[in-house]
Amino acid sequence: GGLVGFGVTINFPAGSIPGSQQLSFQAGVIATVGGSIVPGVLSLQGSVSFAFLLVITLGSSPSIGIGCQLTISVSGQLLSGLLGISFTAQATGIVTVTSPQSVQATFSVSVDITVCWFLDIPFSVTFQYTQSL
Q1: Which among 31, 108, 118, 132 has most CB atoms closer than 10 A?
Q2: What whole-number distance in Å separates Cα of residue 109 and Cα of residue 10?
Q3: pLDDT tens digit string along 89-126?
Q4: Does residue 26 contact residue 53 with C-beta atoms inside 8 Å?
Q5: Do residues 89 and 71 touch, judged by C-beta distance below 8 A?
Q6: How far is CA 121 from CA 29, 38, 115, in A?
Q7: Of the candidates 63, 66, 70, 62, which has an alpha carbon nearest to the alpha carbon of residue 53?
Q8: Integer-rounded Cα radius of gyration of the chain
Q9: How many CB atoms lie under 10 A from the CB of residue 127?
Q10: Side by side, which strands form the sheet with 102-115?
């Protein structure tokens, strides 16, 4: 399948931080596989998506960034949801091509466990790396 996205972010000025607007565009592909392995007992699903990004920031210091994003997601259910688990990992890298140049990478991992259809145990962690060039 295909993936096309568009986003708008507006940061209002607060304290010494100036306001800015950000437009982001992404286009990519997604592949999904899975289904009911044993009907009513075990179902599994997995997907992988890859997208190219274009990020335009407007404000006091306008910038243009290009990058890519990779997302891997796996989920499964036992006994029609009596026990369920989902795992998602996402990595995004953006290079700012206008002055000042920089590289930014974000990695996030999320695990969600469901027990007895209503007890939900989420866990997520995110790491971010930024380096000026």
Answers
A1: 108
A2: 26
A3: 999 999 999 888 999 999 999 999 999 878 899 999 99
A4: yes
A5: yes
A6: 30, 25, 8
A7: 66
A8: 19
A9: 10
A10: 2-11, 20-38, 42-59, 63-78, 83-96, 102-115, 119-132
Rounded CA separation 51/27 (Å): 5
CB count within 10 Å of CB 67 equals 20
Give the CB-side neighbour count of residue 103, counting CA atoms within 13 A. 5
Query: What number of other Cβ atoms are within 10 A of residue 125's Cβ?
Result: 9
Average pLDDT of the segment spanning 2-11: 80
Report helix, strand or coil for 98: coil
Question: What CA–CA distance (Å, rounded) separates 65 from 92?
Answer: 12
Residue where the block lists tokens 């990058």: 67
Which of 65, 129, 64 lies closest to 91 in space, CA to CA? Answer: 129
Q: Which two tokens stand for residue 6?
A: 């568009």
